Amino acid sequence: MARLSRPPRGQPSWVSEKWSKVAPRVRVVRPVRIDPEGRAGPTKGQAQGSRWRRTSEGLYVPSDVGDGVVEQRIVEQGARLRCGVITGWGALRLLGGGYFDGLAHDGHTLLPVQVAANGDRLRSGPGLDVRRVAVDEADVVIRYGVRCAAPERALCDAVRWAESLDDRVVAIDMAAAAELSSPHRLRTFASSSRHLRERVRVIQAVGWADERAESPQEVRLRLIWRRCFSWPAPLVNRTVVGVEGRRLGTPDLVSVELEMGAEFDGAEHRERERHRRDVRRLDDFQRAGLEIATFVGADLDDERLVVDRLRAARDRAGRLPRRWRLAAPGPGLDERLDERDRMIALAEGA
User: Fold this and answer.
1) pLDDT class for 12, splitting at 50, 70, 90?
2) Where are the domains of the chain?
3) Strands 260-265 and 85-86, bridge-based pairing
4) pTM score above 0.85
């Protein structure tokens, strides 16, 4: 898959302090074609000047409109489509997925926008990854003025075309975090879409997914736990309370059977007051008999380190009397999505 490269910009947005599960709405400028009268677009002469920037063959935006905003980059590719559909990570971004920022793991390599050709005569090139597949019109929605695959189809494509199991599971969990879709909905879609190649990858990845995940690094930590140990699978983001009912916190991962949990502390945890609260919270967990293994920065790049630290936490667990329990979970994601769909249907029928 061809990728573009730009000068390093630091960490990907999903490990920065400003990362959000839901992408904010932003302003984009849709490319226009040459207009001989210069009303709906530039004249041929104006298009050759410095005030216009060519985005693709025959399409232009004002030169002061940059492509640094990921939504603008996606829309510029989407404007080329007639029957084609933006899908994969690009569609998930336009649908509101904050994690899908169009950057590779290094934080500065730009991923090409994934497009289902759907009959359009397009070729892959810089910034564009064309797949010779069709998308049913029932699975097409309009976002930011361009044709996008609906959530389940976009997520299915992103997952089946991902390079590794970790990437597939992260995509599922982060789409769930943004409440675009759920693992259950994705499994149902993939199981019923027998014409899609590699859909088995999607069904397998769903078995590793969890709708309660809140960050990509947390997902990767959970996958190491599950791959490397025969322990019970950890529960995800469950609130822990003390025996007296006081809320102690919500660790990323927790196992009642093992009396332990694990957390990944991202960049936002380095802020002084946040770090102070974290230290107090970990102390509360430990006093209540819950052992927590903590990871930061690039720890997850060293699987042996993660395994050793988890094993050490397991060895320490159970030394103090258990003085904690899990609070009851709130409504599940599918319940929330079903209720949202019901409210939308009611509003449209009004």
Assistant:
1) low
2) 4-29+65-206, 216-326
3) unpaired
4) yes
